[in-house]
Prior knowledge:
The structure holds 3 protein chains of 3 kinds. By secondary structure, chain A is mainly alpha-helical. Chain A has helices at residues 68-72, 76-81, 111-124, 132-140, 145-150, 165-173, 176-218, 229-233, 254-263, 286-335, and strands spanning 37-39, 46-48, 62-64, 88-89, 270-271, 274-275. The radius of gyration of chain A is 40 Å and the shape is flat. Residues 221-235 and 337-347 of chain A have low confidence and may be disordered. Chain B has a single domain (16-241), classed as YVTN repeat-like/Quinoprotein amine dehydrogenase (Methylamine Dehydrogenase, Chain H). Helices cover 0% and strands 52% of the residues of chain B. Chain B has strands at residues 2-9, 23-25, 31-36, 39-44, 49-54, 61-66, 72-77, 82-86, 90-95, 102-107, 113-118, 122-127, 132-138, 144-148, 156-161, 165-170, 176-181, 195-200, 207-211, 215-220, 225-231, 244-247, 257-261, 266-271, 277-282, 290-296, 299-304, 309-316. Chain B is globular. The termini of chain B are close together. Chain C is mainly beta. Chain C is 8% helix and 39% strand. Chain C contains 4 helices and 28 strands. Chain C has helices at 2-5, 9-12, 377-389, 418-432, and strands spanning 19-24, 30-35, 41-46, 51-55, 60-64, 76-81, 87-92, 96-101, 110-113, 118-123, 130-135, 141-145, 152-156, 173-178, 185-190, 194-201, 204-212, 218-223, 229-234, 238-246, 253-261, 270-275, 282-287, 295-299, 305-309, 316-322, 327-332, 338-342. The model of chain C has no long low-confidence stretch (mean pLDDT 91). The interface between B and C is large, with 64 and 43 residues.
Amino acid sequence: MVPLPEWCPPLDTTKYDPNTCEELFCICKKPDSGELMVGCDGCDDWFHFKCLRIPLEYKELVFSFYCPYCQAGVTGPGAITGKLPKTVWRRKCRVSDCYRSCDENSKYCSKEHGIEYLRGISRRLDCGRYGSREVIHKMTSGRSFKQFREIGSLGLAPASRDLDPDTYDAIFGSGVFKDDLDVKMSRLIEAQRLITEGTLPTLDRYIAWIKVVNELLFSNGGAEEKGDGRTRKKARAPRGICGFSVDKKIPRDAADFVRQFHEEKETVEDLHGVCCKVRCSKHLDWTGIEQRTLQYEQESVQTSLQRIDLLKKQRNEELTLQFHEMLLRKHKICNKVGGGAIQDTTR
Amino acid sequence: MGCFRLEKLALVVPNSDILYTAAKISPDGRFIAIGEDANVLVHDLEKARTTTYPTAHTRPIANLTWSPDSQCIATACDDFTITITHLVYGELHRLTGHTAPVTALVYTPKGNLLCSCSVDESIKVWDTLEGRLLRTMSAHSESVVSIDIPTCDASVLASGSYDGLIRVFDTASGHCLKTLTYDKDWQSENGVVPISQVKFSVNGKYLLVASLDGIIKIWDYLQGRVVRTFRSGVSSTLKYSCGMDFLYPADPTKPPVVVTGTEDGHIYCWDAQDKTLYQELLATNDNSPLMCIDCREQYMCSLSLRGDCRLYKWVDDN
Amino acid sequence: MANLQLQDPFSVLKEYPEKLTQILVSPIYTCCIRFSPRGDYLAAGCSNGAIVIYDIDTAKPITMLGSEGGCHIRSVQSLSWSRCGRYLLSSGRDWWIKVWDLQSRSRPLKEHKFDSPIWECHWSSRAPWECISTVLEKSYAYVVDFVGEEAIVQELKSTLDNDDAESLDHGYTLVSCSHPRFSDLVLTGTSKGWFKIYQLRQDGVTLRHCSKFANSNTKHLVISQSGDRIAINSSDRTIRQFSLFISDDMEHINIEIEHKYQDVINKLQWNSIFFSNNSAEYLIASTHGSSAHDIYLWETSSGTLVRVLEGTEEELLDIDWNFYNMCIAANGIETGNIYIWSIVIPPKWSALAPDFEEVDENIEYKEKEDEFDESDVLEQQQELDEAEETEIDLRALEKFDVRGNDLTMKSFIIPIEYSDIVMLKMWDGAGAA
Lengths: 347, 318, 433
């Protein structure tokens, strides 16, 4: 069940006035007074348009009507099946103050209204220096429906400076927003360059170095020497020192580093800024974090660049539209000199 | 005391058969937006240049409003729809849902919600990010023609309707919090007096209300009583909903000014505190009704039905 | 907020929310959530490092931080809004703490990297741009100053006292919070159950208080707005509530246990805790474990459970309570959705008809002495005239709302990212074509 509309009282099943024995209808439970009503297809009761807040103009548009109780599942088929019915309307004629329903396969109630609607549109068509008749003729002179549909699919004609240099410069010359996007774009490209040429190779080299160090330290069976069962089980997991360093600078040759590490009796935690703990929970997954950070940066730069590209396109379209509109308006004002137009002046 | 001085004429009118009803100064003070048939003209005050923004409307624009960040213009149209147009990216949303002409719009201070009212007697609240209808408030029994939200407090929304009532709603829940009758005997034998415009004071504590009998009142809506009454002109039954607004002089010790337009093209300015008439000026060439008055900082923009759009600046006397 | 002045005062002044009213749907797992200072936005930190900001009015996400990069790439551990609502501080398991300027949020404004995951980080109440951070396996918290180009980081460790003040092993410092009234006091809790108060002075740091309250990890440490009550949630399944007395010259510091909260039946851990406003009349906590889906609400003076906030079907993780909108938010561990409980104020039908009054029960009508008297027209007119002459103030803004919240601090409005709308439209257009 769905709730009844706020304005609808709960269902009252009284069918007759106990005093006058008149038959009662609608949510208002009043006898028929000749006011416009509509019959419900679900419960066969009759309802006032007014009470249900349906504009009287819609009277010809009802296809199948269900009252609020049936729509809410209180009565009618919804109460039994659980599938709530809804009022279905006929499509209204496109002429805005006509409330007749459409003819079959048409958007209008009649041929006359079809003509009236399109005439209204052609009146509103602002064709600039061309007459609207001329434009419509051009539009409809195509041979096929397909050709007709393709009109306009190419988008606006590009704004050309030759048409009107002043207007062109006024719109395209002062692109405050445009520069803004260009600056952003070059900043992103620079950020991208820094990663691919600087940070990323440095990190890769450092990680490779640590790998070499760990291979030197542990691959010659250093761990297995102790030979107890526990280490053997773990033999498959790559062992090694943590290797984290803040600046990712390779301190010295790997072999050198390993030698020094052994000299320090392997208990040192930090050698040349390199973390030498074997099981380091503090820097856990530092390579993962570093690599993901750079990867993420690159991804964001890529998506941002694509996005800026699209935005520039969209804005250019909008500016082109404004350019054409301004030409039209100029044209109109020129034609109306002396027609009560006031000049745009600052006093 | 002080007075308005004409700064500039903002609009070149090419079509004298078009009726103009809305002109608003952008919150950043750089532009004036004017509804012209189905287009929005945006006049850049600094560059003295007008740009046309076509909309997808099929009928004339009845009203418009700027988003608080001055980047978008929302238009209310007789074709039952609302569009939101961005100054750089063009149309962002077309909002459909009203079943009659849309009459007025107001953004919340955050710019995240747009509220609209309509001849269909309802008020709707839209999410401006997704262009989604959030809720509908149906509490009037005639066209709702004006709505407002204080710039300092998005929690309340006031509406004025031709049913003669001013209602204050909770913006978040849509519940009606208060109803102000136009007068003690609002339902006299002549019927009710339709409300034509409502506007909150800058602190959101008072409501400036214009009605079609030509009387302007300031309501203390929390207490539910009228605290100021202003009468303009002679006519007692207006044909047009003329504009009005508050102006706050730069000097905080000076009382706010109530600015109203009349049907014969005049502007009246009153001291909101002691009700003295400061100034009366003619703001049109042809005495056509002043449909819109919009004040922003020290500037006031007026627009006549025939498209005469002027910008005035308030100058304090010493 | 004028709406509160026109609503039923008994409903408006309720001290805690009771009803689940909103669910913010999140496609990603959320780790931590924080309301903006005025309660009009909610920031959610996610397990993949994303930070999403929701608009409470529309219950929809409005932005993700770091559209051009620079966001966390491991789970976000904590979020903290600056008092003005413009700067958001985030910390992550990826070792970074970042400051975001919501005015231009495509990249972080400032950031600092530690050498291990961060537990939490919050703005200090002492100075703008200063924050306190706790880091994995560190004995002390850190004071991070973002005022300059590079962050200045300093261990929060006593420098002015004699050596034996901190000679004992107190474990790692895990949590911290700033004192709301004495802004140079920082409270910390350690992995071995120690509670310490440091004072940040011009000349260095001194340890003002150090005591042991338990033998286990500190999970959370919260302090009331008034600063005289604290609560500590620790791994021993207990929340301890203390009264905290600090003399004005800070010479005397005294803490005393008031109550211990435990789930006696299920012996559950507490996921998160939060105090109500002012002197913290109430304490709320979310429970650990898949069988518990509620938030418990205790009265702090008596220590009794007064309410259980229900309505969700999953375990709740982090909680936050905003006192402007009087909403409690908590995020679900399974879906990542954010649940919001608020005070529901019933509609007042009499508001629709002026001159109507709602009564609780039928009142027998009795004619009043003067009810049908011909009222004195002159007197009425006089009253109206008087109203017209009383001075009105159209400019001055309200300083406090009816709940006593400060309204002078303007809420920061996060600018709308219009290019997002344009992009969405383009995708929709591409999808349709």
